[in-house]
Amino acid sequence: MSELINKVTQLLNDKTIDVFIGYEKGSADRIRAAFARTAEQAAKLVYTASCTQNLAGYLMKHEVKKLGKPGLLANVAALRSIMQLASEFQVKDGEVYVLFANADGSFTEFTSFASIEAYLGTTDVGIKSDEQEMIARLEAMSVQERWLFWNKEFDKCIKCYACRAACPMCYCHRCTTDVNQPQWIPVASHERGNLDYHLMRAMHLAGRCVNCGECANACPMDIPLNLLTYQLIDPIKNTFGATAGMKADAVYALSTYKPDDKENFII
Q1: Contact between residue 210 and residue 148 where contact means Cβ atoms under 8 Å apart
Q2: Which residues are registered as beta bridge partners of 100?
Q3: Taking a C-beta distance cutoff of 8 angstroms, is the pair 53, 77 a contact?
Q4: Which of 57, 107, 48 is nearest to 78 (CA)?
Q5: Can you give 71-126 as a three-state secondary structure string?
Q6: Can you say whether the dihedral through the CA atoms of 19, 24, 26, 32 is positive or negative?
Q7: pLDDT digits (tens, 9 = 90+) for 77-133
Q8: How far apart (Å, rounded) are the C-alpha atoms in residues 24 and 47?
Q9: Residue of 81, 231, 230, 223 lying closest to 160 (CA atoms)
């Protein structure tokens, strides 16, 4: 722990960064995001097995941008988020100082997009085995069974938008769900409104989801929202040869046309 605190304190004192986004203990010893701007705040930083949240989403928050150049304690999901944000022209090379948490408790500094890309090319970025099993069960269902499954799950949604707030790829200044003239997505938490919202969000994440699972982690109703976007990862990869969050100069699969694109999805 002292290695992390000493490093962040040095970065803040040297003015290399203006704020460091990491973890600290909150109420009831729960782990929460921390924004250290002074040595005193840096001294409260922690890193344990419970520190799993993808912190990259905070990079897009207006309140955080106003604080100056950020430093970020990253896991694999956060590294991929940064790469995806870079490919969408939201983050420039050198704008974010990245400190990566290794499995052995040590920390590695990434100073460029190239170094992040090189690391991601050698590590496992796949979906967890238990999540793969759940996806396999879903795909084994008939279309009607899947329809009933998701409608039952969406029926629990209270439209709190915690999934949107937690997702590093949901950074639009004004979401489609907030537009009321015209109103594209019904606001009320009912069958049609919930279905429209979650399908719209899944469509916007197709080819962009870095399978961090923060949407499901944030959901107070325990809806497995991550499975919805995870199911789109392989079709995008198999059809367009694209995997989100691996390269800073990648092109979004659903916004680019190539003459040799497969067209087997066209009915």
Answers
A1: no
A2: 74, 108
A3: no
A4: 57
A5: EEEECHHHHHHHHHHHHCCCCCCCCCEEEEECCCCCEEEECCHHHHHHHHCCCCCC
A6: positive
A7: 999 999 999 999 999 999 999 999 988 888 999 989 999 999 999 998 989 999 999
A8: 8
A9: 223
